[in-house]
Amino acid sequence: MNDVLPFPADLPALPRSPRLLVLGDMDALSRGLAEGSGRGRASDAHVWAILQQVMLTASGLGCRTLPVRWAASSATARHHLDLMTRSANNVWSVRRGLDGADHALLEELECITAATIGANRNKNAGRPADLVVLIALDHIYAPAIRRLRLLGVPTWVLQPGRFIAADLYRAAAAVTRLVPPMAA
């Protein structure tokens, strides 16, 4: 299952040592992978397989350090507690409420936007990211993704379920559907 995802032709060419940021909405990932199974959330094994695939893909793009931010609601965090404790060197944000993960990732996207604007003003400052890899489905991310795209930072959205919000799809530079391990 841990095959590297193909780099979409829709994305611009990356520099030799690109700065990537991986952001993952664990609520969308867990629920998206469970679609059609009759369960509310995917198993730790299925989620872990996709996380490994995403990390292999990102590291295969040639970046030296890879900041990763996973965000989950408290209910998803309880369901995947073993997975969270097993994933060393990753930063987890756990927020209460149905949209807790969304708001945690939106804060990350806003920080990237502010840092990119600062880097554009100060020619000596480095850009925070050349590419954002986002695992998500929700329309709430579309405005932040559009702002980043206008600043020259493309976003590759990895779609964990069958359906993705139309405005997120349009805002992304590229979208790749993640295939659940059981369907692979």
Structural description of this entry:
This protein is 40% helix and 17% strand. It is α/β, with parallel strands linked by helices. It has a 6-stranded parallel beta sheet with strand order 3-2-1-4-5-6. Helix 5 (100-121) runs parallel beside helix 6. The radius of gyration is 16 Å and the shape is globular. The model has no long low-confidence stretch (mean pLDDT 86).
Summarize this, please?
40% of the residues lie in helices and 17% in strands.
Key words describing this protein structure:
184 residues, alpha/beta, Rossmann fold, six-stranded parallel sheet, 7 helices, 6 strands, globular
Q: Poorly predicted ranges (pLDDT <50, ≥5 residues)?
A: none
The CATH superfamily name is 5'-nuclease
Q: What structural category arises from helix and sheet content?
A: alpha/beta
Major beta-sheet overview: 6 strands, parallel
